[in-house]
Write a structure and sequence with these properties.
Pfam families: Rhodanese
Organism: Epilithonimonas zeae
Strand order of the largest sheet: 1-6-5-2-4
Order of helices and strands: EHEHEEHHEHEHEHEHEHEHEH
CATH superfamily of the largest domain: Rhodanese-like domain
CATH architecture of the largest domain: 3-Layer(aba) Sandwich
Radius of gyration: 18 Å
Shape: globular
Number of strands: 11
GO molecular function: thiosulfate-cyanide sulfurtransferase activity
Keywords: Pyruvate, Repeat, Transferase
Strand content: 5-15%
Protein name: Thiosulfate/3-mercaptopyruvate sulfurtransferase
CATH topology of the largest domain: Oxidized Rhodanese, domain 1
Length: 276
């Protein structure tokens, strides 16, 4: 059975705001993310940190800039954040769900949490729709989160797999970064500009309309059906710079009714430190 929509509208969030099982998380990123959260966030939302909660940062050559944490450590993090299997988790960020909101969504789905959604339009749209705001730090009572699994349940591939895929005409590698980064014109984050050989560029921003909201499932289905034509589902891989914004496209695919394809978490940040 298909899970509920991975996208929730601000109007829907209003209607469930009193639900005792609701858990809202603020996934904004940047050098002052926590400080900005403390100044202003959606009411009852708890800050989640990309670098410490959603990644285990080490040497980017081994796993990229935002490798996944150990599965068991992430389960502990979920408990400390106050999430349990009955929680209805709603996540937003300040980048139209394109950053840590989508990554957190993918990770929750990958531990078996089904009732998890990303807020369409993120913080800015919710504020424009007069969703209640608060300041300071919110929290939820800790839980003892039990996944029922021992490892991530959504498909991933690793650098050696990507090497094989670059030489396989039956595989498609999708790079969701901005075209200028893909084309090697500019690179402000990683050491080297360019892209993985034979990768196709489909920027994540194309998942959104002019208002910064997700395009309709029908439009997304049409866009990606053309991209995926003639490719086996198991041979489709998405990546970005460090395995974060790629999740925005996986979110869009789920929204459009596709099965979620492979994620290469190491992405360009790992590949460019090893294979260029």
């Amino acid at each position: 059975m298909k899970n509920q929509s991975p996208i929730i509208e601000v109007a829907e969030l209003f209607t469930i705001s009193e639900n005792p099982n609701l858990r809202i998380f603020d996934g904004r990123t940047g050098p002052n993310a926590k400080e900005e959260y403390l100044k202003k966030h959606l009411e009852n939302s708890v800050f989640v940190d990309l670098n410490s909660d959603l990644a285990e940062i080490d040497n980017p050559k081994n796993g990229g800039r935002h490798p996944l944490p150990k599965f068991e450590d992430f389960i502990k993090t979920l408990g400390s954040l106050g999430i349990d299997k009955d929680s209805h988790v709603v996540i937003y960020d300040d980048k139209n769900g394109a950053n840590a909101a989508a990554r957190f969504w993918w990770m929750l789905r990958a531990v078996g949490q089904t009732n998890v959604q990303v807020l369409n339009g993120g913080l800015q749209f919710a504020e424009n729709q007069n969703y209640p705001l608060s300041s300071g730090e919110d929290s939820y009572p800790e839980t003892d989160y039990i996944s029922g699994h021992q490892d991530w349940q959504l498909p991933q591939i690793w650098m050696d797999d990507v090497k094989l895929a670059t030489q396989d005409s039956g595989s498609v590698i999708v790079d969701v970064r901005e075209s200028q980064r893909y084309d090697g014109i500019t690179e402000l984050i990683d050491l080297i500009a360019g892209h993985i050989p034979n990768a196709k560029n489909f920027p994540f921003i194309d998942n959104l309309d002019d208002d910064g909201l997700f395009k309709s499932p029908e439009l997304l289905k049409n866009l990606y059906s053309e991209l995926f034509e003639n490719y086996d589902q198991n041979k489709i891989t998405f990546h970005c710079g460090s395995g974060v914004t790629a999740c925005h496209s996986l979110l869009a695919l789920d929204y459009a009714g596709f099965d979620i394809p492979n994620l290469y978490v190491g992405s360009w940040s790992e590949w460019s430190r090893n294979e260029v």
